[in-house]
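Batch job 17 of 40 flagged for manual review because the log was empty.
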Amino acid sequence: MSTSCKETKTNEYVFEKEGMTFIVPEDWKITDEEKFDDGSYYLSIDKNGFDSSGVLIITSYNNSIDLDELIYFQKEEIQNNVIFKNSVFEPIQNSEFNSINSRATHYTFGLLGLEHEGSIHAFYINDNTFLVMKQGALEDRTVNNKGFDIIEDSFGAYVKVKSAKR
């Protein structure tokens, strides 16, 4: 995995790549990332620990996509997965992700006898479309929200500078 990182005062680090920047909390780790041929980028960040339930997924697209359609597509993907078949979604509504105007939905589902909750936010920054999905077990809400808040509160985007051809 090739990420640009800057160390912070704790074991947290700053992720800077693919036009975005945010802090990865010390007890979280990037578990998957992939850049696709169409320029989209996928990143998964999980709470460390065998019995941890927190996961945050960021997908960026370097074009404009209708936010409600993007959320609807993600909702269908979740509901088509056997594990999440019993998911119940709230209507899509206006929201914010780190003071960025977004469209969002919240959902609940049962997994291995535990109730889980999640949210999906979609928004635009710098001509890019972002989809952020976070979920975890209700019993882990307090510990997961600490990590979710650090990531969200530090989330930003920077403009990619394209070099001029000479």
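Reviewer: the log was empty due to a logging misconfiguration, but the result itself is present. The chain has two helices and twelve strands. Unflagging and moving on to job 18.
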